[in-house]
Design goal:
Blueprint (H helix, E strand, L loop, with lengths): L2 H18 L3 H8 L12 E4 L1 H4 L5 H13 L9 E3 L26 H10 L3 E7 L16 H11 L3 E5 L8 H15 L4 E4 L11 H4 L2 E3 L8 H12 L10 E3 L12 H13 L4 E3 L8 H7 L2 H7 L8 E6 L2 E7 L5 E7 L5 E6 H4 L6 E6 L4 E2 L4 E2 L1 E6 L3 E9 L2
Parallel strand pairs: 1-2, 1-8, 2-3, 3-4, 4-5, 5-6, 6-7
Antiparallel strand pairs: 9-10, 10-11, 11-17, 12-16, 13-14, 13-15, 13-17
Helix pairs in contact: 4-5, 6-7, 9-10, 10-11, 10-12
The structure holds alpha-D-galactopyranose.
Length: 398
């Protein structure tokens, strides 16, 4: 080879190497760090934390799986049965593996997974991107990611919630992908729920790493806590999409701290925000009132709509707000929310929602299960009680 053509060849090689890190193909493979195909709609299920905290055992998990089936909730889509913190012994075994707590999970997690699977449900588990979980009762997975991911896969785990307590101070953007890779290596599709509480704006990077990401600190069973989580989560609406969802934390519906109307607001906002619908009460003893809320098929359908676009606040006036977001078939989900202490009249204006004012819609009230008689052009007004909401689907009339 002549010197000039050798130089040209070397230059080409160099250029190829330099551009390969930014070419579309490599960007695609980076985006698919978590290519597990899960979460095309927000996950639905149950978790032990909000009601049971650390007081969990295998009988409770099995009875909950039974109850999800017997109440009909499983059929509505609530399929993940998620064991939260406190399921493991405080020390790993001599091979470094996590050990299910002998006193509370004597049969082991695999047996539980088999049981849950036999009911047509899926089993979720919890770990932490630190040295200990938040309860400090069990080890975290930091430094043991591959081993733990293999253990979870060998047990038949379908969902991993990955918390952020007691870590080494490094960034979640560095720590969480280690578990993503470990999960991918197992070849088992495991839904990956990042739980770093919104610390480093996971909405901005979560899609490459997990199927959902907490955007807030822990919810508690009060109106103030619930609406503030809804507000914080709404800021990130543009980042939710099929395969990756903003997570304002698990549901408190049925735990007793809010009124029925407040729980309806809670469930409606979570649904329209395309949040995971993870029940947090004791479904073994669920009340009729709680069932009326979490088993509302029309509201669930908004959450599970295939378009997967999170609703936003489109107008805020004093104590009231209008939330809206698009659905498939040119429909729009609308929420009229009264955060104040008095009955008030709320108007959704088409121009706020981003639709032509001359368009006519019919409106379906998702809590009354009625299609309203009048057709609406330009706006829709309704009265809403204190700490309550109305939720509609608008369908265009052509
Ligand atoms: C953190 C999480 C909670 C729960 C607890 C368990 O606080 O944010 O959702 O998992 O840990 O200890």
């Amino acid at each position: 080879m002549e010197l000039t053509s050798a130089l040209a060849w070397l230059t080409t090689c160099l250029l190829l190497t330099l551009t390969s890190s930014t070419d579309p193909q490599s960007l695609i493979s980076r985006r698919n760090l978590l290519g597990n195909g899960l979460g095309s709609t927000p996950p639905m299920g149950w978790s032990s934390w909000n009601y049971f905290n650390c007081k969990i055992d295998e009988a409770t998990i099995k009875q909950t799986a039974d109850a999800l089936v017997s109440t009909g909730l499983a059929k509505l889509g609530y399929k993940y049965v998620n064991i939260d913190d406190c399921w493991a012994e405080s020390s790993r075994d001599d091979k470094g593996a996590l050990v299910p707590k002998r006193t509370t999970f004597p049969s082991g997690i695999k047996v539980l997974a088999d049981y849950v699977h036999s009911k047509g449900l899926k089993l979720g588990i919890y770990s932490d991107a630190g040295f200990y979980t938040c309860s400090k009762e069990q080890p975290g997975s930091l430094g043991h990611e591959e081993q733990d991911a293999q253990t979870f896969a060998s047990w038949g785990i379908d969902f991993l919630k990955y918390d952020n307590c007691n870590n080494d101070g490094s960034r979640p953007t560095l720590r969480y992908p280690v578990m993503t890779r470990a999960l991918m290596k197992t070849k088992r599709p495991i839904f990956f729920n990042l739980c770093e509480w919104g610390d480093m704006h996971p909405a901005l990077w979560g899609y490459t790493v997990g199927n959902s990401w907490r955007t807030t600190n822990d919810i508690s069973d009060t109106w103030e806590s619930m609406v503030s989580r809804a507000d914080q989560n709404e800021v990130y609406a543009d980042f939710a999409r099929p395969g990756g969802w903003n997570d304002p934390d698990m549901l408190e519906v049925g735990n007793g701290g809010m009124t029925k109307n407040e729980y309806i607001v809670h469930f409606s906002i979570w649904a329209i925000s395309k949040s995971p619908l993870v029940i947090g009460c004791d479904v073994r003893n669920i009340s009729k009132e709680t069932m009326e809320i979490i088993a509302n098929k029309e509201v669930i359908a908004v959450n599970q709509d295939k378009l997967g676009v999170q609703a936003k606040k489109v107008r805020m006036e004093g104590d009231w707000e209008v939330w809206a977001g698009p659905l498939t078939h040119d429909r729009i989900a609308v929420l009229l929310l009264n955060r104040g202490a008095w009955l008030t009249s709320i108007t959704a204006h088409w121009e706020d929602i981003g639709i032509a004012p001359a368009t006519t819609f019919k409106a379906r009230d998702l809590w009354k299960h009625k299609t309203l008689k009048p057709r609406f052009t330009g706006n829709l007004t309704d009265s809403v009680e204190a700490h309550a909401c109305k939720m509609f689907i608008l369908s265009p009339v052509y």
